[in-house]
Amino acid sequence: MAQKQETQHALLIPWGHFAQEIGLICGIQAVKLNQKSYEHTPQAKVIEFFVAILSGAKYLQDISLAAHPLDKDGAAAQAWGQPGWADYTGMSRTLKKLTWSEVHALVEVLERVSQPMLESELALLRTQGGRRLEYDGDLTGLPVSNTSRTYPNAAYGHMSDEIRLGYQAGLVSLQSPSYGRLWISVDHHAGDTVSCTQAEGLVRAAEKRSGQYPKRRTELLQKRIEALVKSRAPAEKRWGSQQANLETAQRMKEEVSAQLREETKSKRIAVLERRGFRREQSIEIARKKLEKTLAQIQVALEEEKTLRQRLEQLERDNAENTQPIQACFRLDAGFGTYDNIALLMEMGYEVYVKLHNHKITEMLRQKISPDTLWTRVGDNAEMVAWSGLELQHCPYPLDVALERFYTGQTQKHSTLAHFGDTPITSDLPAWFNHYNERQTIEAGIKEAKQVFYLNRLKVRSEPAIYLQEAMTIFAANFIRWATAWIKCHTLPSEQSLPLSQMGVKKQVQVAANTSATVIHHSGGMLLMFNPASAFAGKSLFFPMPSRSLWRIFFYRFSRFRF
Question: How many alpha carbons fall within 13 Å on the CB side of residue 455?
Answer without folding.
Answer: 16
